[in-house]
């Protein structure tokens, strides 16, 4: 098959040629946009799921919907140990520009004050935010130093600007679980205030499965602030469509047996579907792509995933943390999901308290998460299978 015409796109956050299986979420978001535009109250949205299920792709697709509806939009990616002021300020600056309000000077001045509060007065020039905003910095608005007060004031002003234009603002936050506790609390408080005032600004966040617990720990009313959508692997029909529709656009096809085998090896996880689809296309001699073609391509696809998807994450772990990860894999040989922390300690032959530092470090690095009290799970699908495969290869070497 011609690799130049290969339609599959296994990239981080890269939209696949066929966004299969997400119609329900996109349709629900369309209703939110239309309701807010009519002045109806609506909750902000949180997308949760494992890595590789397409949360970022869906987040970007929703942003495109908002842009087409004439909304002001901005996007940021939360990072551990980083204040939200600067990235959120940049995202809101983009949203204000998209609104095109004829007199946004006052709100831009408030925005400058909000962001500049992140750097101390004696900060060096390269630590300061160079926004390109010509408006003067306002004093006494969004500059108290209390992130909750400042964020409520800033978002209220931005939402008021949108209301003047009879439009809305949507702020998209990826990796939302990495926001600091104070920033999470402030964001919840701001969403609460905006909802009470009926202002047209919503937050659309995406994060790992424990994100609802992070929000709930911050504000007890967070479960009423957000509409939660769990983004999971594709069902068989959607996975088949993700492969067959792009192929059909290039006058190619898969046999039924090939599609069945691809679903078995990928588990329906969107990133894996794209990764296998790309390799199978490149190695298949012609159309239709059959079961034998999948069998030939599978080892190369698995190797690419082992290096780029699994291996890159494993490299972030220390030796002690890798030992903990392997013990997690051994404690769950059937890949059922979450395993008790005590079972991992038992595999290691140690007391639970002695391995908790490795566990906490892996949670902070986003490699595992606490699915419920006393139980942990991988944030990456098939990670346990990958780790057990590495051990098996080492044993046979």
Question: How does this model look, in words?
Answer:
There is one protein chain. The chain contains 16 helices and 8 strands. It is α/β, with parallel strands linked by helices. It folds into 3 domains: 208 residues, 3-Layer(aba) Sandwich (Rossmann fold); 77 residues; 78 residues, Orthogonal Bundle (Arc Repressor Mutant, subunit A). β7 and β8 form a beta hairpin. α3 runs antiparallel to α4, α10 packs parallel to α12 and α13 packs across α14. The radius of gyration is 23 Å and the shape is globular. The two termini are 35 Å apart. InterPro entries: AAA_16, Cyt_c-like_dom, P-loop_NTPase. It comes from Micropruina glycogenica. GO terms for molecular function: electron transfer activity; heme binding; metal ion binding. Pfam families: AAA_16 (PF13191).
Brief sketch in words of this structure:
By secondary structure, the chain is an alpha/beta fold. The protein has helices at about 25-35, 55-70, 85-100, 105-115, 145-165, 180-195, 210-220, 220-225, 235-250, 255-265, 270-285, 290-315, 320-330, 340-350, 350-365, 385-395; strands at about 45-50, 70-75, 170-175, 200-205, 225-230, 340, 370, 375-380. The two termini are about 35 Å apart.
């Amino acid at each position: 098959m011609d690799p130049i015409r290969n339609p599959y796109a296994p990239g981080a956050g890269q939209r696949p040629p066929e966004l299969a299986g997400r119609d329900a979420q996109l349709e629900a978001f369309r209703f939110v946009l239309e309701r807010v535009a009519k002045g109806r109250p609506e909750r902000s949205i949180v997308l949760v799921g494992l890595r590789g299920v397409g949360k970022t792709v869906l987040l970007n697709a929703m942003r495109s919907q908002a842009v087409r509806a004439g909304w002001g939009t901005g996007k940021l990616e939360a990072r551990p140990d980083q204040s939200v002021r600067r990235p959120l300020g940049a995202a809101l600056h983009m949203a204000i520009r998209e609104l095109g309000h004829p007199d946004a000077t006052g709100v831009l001045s408030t925005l400058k004050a909000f962001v500049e509060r992140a750097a101390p007065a004696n900060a060096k020039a390269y630590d300061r935010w160079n926004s390109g905003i010509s408006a003067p910095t306002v004093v006494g608005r969004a500059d108290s130093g209390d992130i909750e007060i400042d964020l409520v004031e800033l978002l209220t002003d931005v939402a008021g600007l949108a209301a003047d234009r009879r439009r809305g603002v949507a702020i998209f936050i990826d990796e939302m679980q990495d926001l600091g506790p104070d920033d999470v609390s402030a964001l919840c408080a701001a969403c609460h205030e905006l909802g009470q005032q009926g202002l047209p600004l919503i937050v659309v966040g995406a994060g790992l499965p424990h994100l609802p617990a992070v929000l709930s720990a911050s504000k007890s009313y967070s479960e009423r602030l957000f509409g939660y959508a769990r983004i999971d692997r594709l069902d068989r029909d959607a996975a088949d469509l993700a492969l067959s529709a792009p192929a059909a656009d290039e006058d190619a096809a898969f046999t039924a047996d090939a599609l069945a085998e691809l679903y078995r090896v990928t588990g329906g996880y969107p990133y894996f579907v794209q990764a296998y689809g790309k390799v199978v296309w490149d190695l298949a001699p012609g159309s239709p792509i059959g079961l034998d073609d999948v069998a030939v391509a599978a080892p190369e696809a698995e190797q690419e995933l082992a290096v780029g998807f699994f291996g890159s994450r494993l490299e972030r772990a220390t030796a002690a943390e890798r030992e903990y990860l392997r013990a997690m894999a051994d404690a769950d040989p059937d890949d059922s999901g979450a395993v008790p922390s005590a079972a991992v300690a038992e595999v290691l032959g140690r007391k639970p308290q002695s391995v908790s530092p490795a566990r906490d470090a892996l949670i902070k690095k986003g490699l595992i998460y606490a699915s419920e009290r006393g139980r942990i799970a991988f944030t990456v699908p098939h990670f346990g299978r990958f780790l057990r495969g590495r051990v098996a290869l080492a044993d046979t070497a």
